[in-house]
Every structure is written in C-alpha cells, then in structure tokens.
Amino acid sequence: MAGAFKWSTACLDWRERIVARESLVPCPPLFAEKAEDALGAFKSLQVVDLPKGANDRHPTLGEVCDEFVFDLVAAIFGAEDPETGKRLIKEFMLLISKKNGKSMIAAGIMVTALIVNWRPNAILQILAPTLEVANNSFEPAMGMVRADPELSIVLKVVEHQRQIKHLGTGAVLKVIAADSDTVAGGKASITLIEELWLFGKKPKAAAMLREALGGGSARPEAFTLYITTHSDEPPSGVFKTKLSYFRDVRDGVIDDPSAMAMLYEWPEKMLDDEAYLDPAFFYITNPHIERSVTVEWLQGELRREQVGEGEGLQIFLAKHLNVEIGLRLRRDRWRGADYWELRADTTLTLAALLERCEVAVVGVDGGGLDDLYGLCVAGRERSTGRWLYWFKAWCWPDVLSRRKEIATILTDYAKDGDLVICSDEMLETLGLGEDDEDYEQPQDIREIVAVIKTVKESGLLPKENAVGLDPQGVGDLVDALAKIGLEAPQVVAIGQGFRLMSAIVGLARKLKFGGALHCGSRMMAWCVSNAKEELGRQTVMIVKNVQGTGKIDPFMAGLNATKLLEMNPVAANDNRSPYHDRGFLIV
C-alpha cells in the first residue's frame, strides 16, 4: 500500500490558512480507518482539570478540543499502514502558544498511543526537559486513566515511577525528566518531546535526543512528536535545527513526506505590521482561543507588559503570541535594530568588502575571558559612499562553562564561521619563546592581527586613525599590532560610553536610509538584539540588556569603526579626497 500513492506534507498556503482559521494539516489522513479508531479513543478521554457535569463525568477531549487537535491526532495515527504496520509519516511538530492546552494534548495523544498500540511490551515515552514539565504531562495522563472505570481495568498507573502500563500488551508509557544531560536506553518506539525550546538550551541535547530516539529506527510503527512554544531567547541548538527543518518541509524547500509540521506562527507581513499587538489577531497563534485562553486575558497581560520595564514584553510575546525573539521587540532597543535585518548583504565577505571599498578601518572591542573579543572591518564603498561592515568574534571555552545559558547559541555561531572558539591545548607553552620571534601570542590575538594585516596589505588603511580600540584590556593587542608596523597615530583609543553617541545615532540613521550594509550574520543579529539604549539628559549610551549573557562586544567594535569612518578617512595609497569621484571637492 505504501508505494501505491504519493503524498506531500508541504503546506505552501499556510499563511492564508492560518488567517482564515483553516487546518494546517496539508493532506488528509493516509489511512482513514486507522485515524478514526484513534480519534474515537482520544475523544473519549476525560479532562480531570475541569469539573464534572450533570452526567457525573468530566468533559472529554472530544468536547473541549478544537478541530486543529483532531486534525493532528488523525494525521499522526492515520499515517500507519494497517496491512504492514509501517508508519509513513514518522515525525511531527506542533508549535503553539502557551495556555493552549499543550500538556493536555500531549497526554491525550500518548494515552491514545498506548491504547491502540499493537506491539507487545512496547515502550512509549514523554520526554520532558525538567521534572516540573514532566509532571505537567504525567498528571493529566494519569487523570485520564483513573477517571474512566473501563480504562482503569486495562491500564495500570504506577504513580511513583511516572508510568502507565497496558496489562494486555505489556506496553508501558513512561514520562521522563531529562534533568540530567543523558537519557539511557533508546528502546522507545513512540516518543513525545515536550518543550523542545528548553532542550535547545542544553549543550548536549542533540546527542541526548539521538540516544532517546534510537529505538524508533528498528520499529516500523515508530513516530516522534515535538510539542513546544517559542523560546524566551533567540532559537538555538537542537530547537533551532528542528524548527528550521520543519519550516522548510512546510514551505516545500525540503521534500520530506515523512515529516509534518503544524506551526502556529505569524506570516511575515503580519510581523512587519506588528499585527500581533492587535487583539483581533490573537487567534493566529492561539487556536484554542476562548477555550483554554481568552482574548481579554491576553489583552490585559499585554497591556501590563507594555507599561512595564525590562524583558517582560519580549517574553510575553514569545510565549503567549509565538513571536520569535529577534531584534525588534524590546522598547529600549537600539534604534538601529529596526533596520538591521533589512540592510543585510550576505555576499559581503572580508574579501568582497576590501574589493568594493576605497578606504577601510578596523574597530576592536576586547572583553574578558567570559566575553567575546569583537572585530569589525568597515569601509566606504566606491561610487556609492555606503558604509560596509564585516564582523567576526573570538572567545575562549571559559565562556561556554561560565555562561551555560548561551553555550548552544555561541556554538551555533561558531558553526556559521562568525565566531571562533579558541583552543586551550597550547596554553601551557604560550609565551615561553627565548626571543620575540619565538614568542607566541594567544589564538584570538594572533587571528585578529592576521585579519588586520590583511586589511593593511590591501592598502586601504588610512595613515591616521586606522584601527580604533576600546582602551580597556587591549595591551597585548597593541603590542602585537606594533610588530606588524601599526602604532599611533594609526592605532587609536576610542572613547566609550556617551562618547560613542554620534556613532550610535549616526549608524542607525544610515541603516534606515540605506547608507550602510553589513554581512548579515546571525551572530550580529543576536548582538544587536542584546544592545540596550540608555538615555541621559543629553546623551545616549549602549549597554547590555542582560549582564553576563547579553553579549554585545562585536557590535561595540562596529561602533568603534563607525567613529573612524566619521572622520572621512582617505586610504594610505590614495592621496585624493574621497569626494573627487562624487562630483565635488571641499577646499
């Protein structure tokens, strides 16, 4: 039967569907009879969180759930070929806002899977990132079993082990808290992963999930369901990887009929128009609106966060309205953040910048061992006069151990090639040479100097004010630059704090009107989103929005470079004014 027909899990018109409140499941159940059997079991399960009615029973999932839940259940269980037992769609993702009955849905699907499972002694598991989330899934599942006298005869709850056993098949549903970084076993055939966004913050989550899901490869009926809200930080790690993959499947970029996505998120145009702030559109990412969550409650919470301080609004939008955290959510964001993504040019490598520019400068911002060392090469483009920016950063493994919350984020940027995580292997021999030629600098200093040397050899550095440094903690870099012939007045200190005000305001203006382009790295989008404007009576400064984890060092390097471009520099190999080629000359 599997080879007798073809199907697609792409949903190219999802934007129109989600606005019209239509189903996001791209195709009908592949095997309708299997879908109906499972739906019958699912709809009969009672929700013990709700009070009993006149019939002395709790409302059932069939009575309280919206159609989108039934569509998902039918798609999952209707993908199994009844003749062969082989499941044709094996991976599913539900991305949905908080307060839409996510744990209830998870519990109902897995209890249903335990009921309809045919494999003797099968292992089913709900894998949660923490004990609290695990209990949120187990308690409704336990309640569904205990509330039904007939079901209680077949299924036995072992509460202290967070397990439910099927006395007929010997199958067992386990609810596992992955607070430790490893999950042993890998024998489960059916797995539901709750709150994937939290797994994205665990450095070893990818290996852990691979171990947990390994058993499915040997069982034809196996499937994995990811249920999650959006992250309270920019997506990272395994969450970002999976979300990107399911989006590509939904959008038809990847042809994978074995994967299906139901992603309640905003069409790009609605994000740009900030439609998520309009209560009339709250249903876009809250398909259970007026069932488990109300417009009035969301509107009231939004109003409170809008008048508050800090990251409350950002987190509310991410969790309750599924707005992916990026650049434009915080009220106190740097004013240029609104235009940053618009001015990305991903073809802008260092080599391309040097080829396109008539003059180039370098900005550097050095941090401590638990910070990034940021570098920015900026130049003035020939003929257009636009300012072009290329960024790179370095860090030591200290950051990953001291700032575990962002370890997976930094690892992602290292994979992109925009961040270098330096090696500790050679530290014992550093600096032990007998003379200057033998003396070896740390990896970050060596590689930063190598980049600056490349810019110098291009002939585009000006004779003065060519390399601008944050004066704090850059003594070793100054010494290393001297060895390649770069000293004052080419190497200069850039005043920080309010002294960067012209760059803060000026770069934002250039981005708005197209006078500046940048290399478009994910790392820089993150750094820009971490930059907070702090207003004085007559000044503007940039500070981190979160101390310790909100890294902005490469962005500060860009502001240092901007200060140098403000001086209208001329390359050392060109004595002409930069205005000769623009039709006028100031004398």
Q: What would you note in describing this structure?
A:
InterPro entries: P-loop_NTPase, TerL_ATPase, TerL_nuclease, Terminase_largesu-like. This is Terminase large subunit domain-containing protein. It comes from Novosphingobium clariflavum. The chain is of the alpha/beta class and 587 residues long. It folds into 2 domains: 196 residues, Rossmann fold (3-Layer(aba) Sandwich); 245 residues, Nucleotidyltransferase, domain 5, CATH 3.30.420.240. 35% of the residues lie in helices and 15% in strands. It has 22 helices and 17 strands. Strand 16 and strand 17 form a beta hairpin. Helix 2 packs across helix 5. The longest helix is centred in the first third of the chain and has 16 residues.
Index terms:
17 strands; 22 helices; eight-stranded mixed β-sheet; 587 residues; disordered C terminus; single chain; Rossmann fold; seven-stranded mixed β-sheet; alpha/beta; Nucleotidyltransferase, domain 5; 2 domains
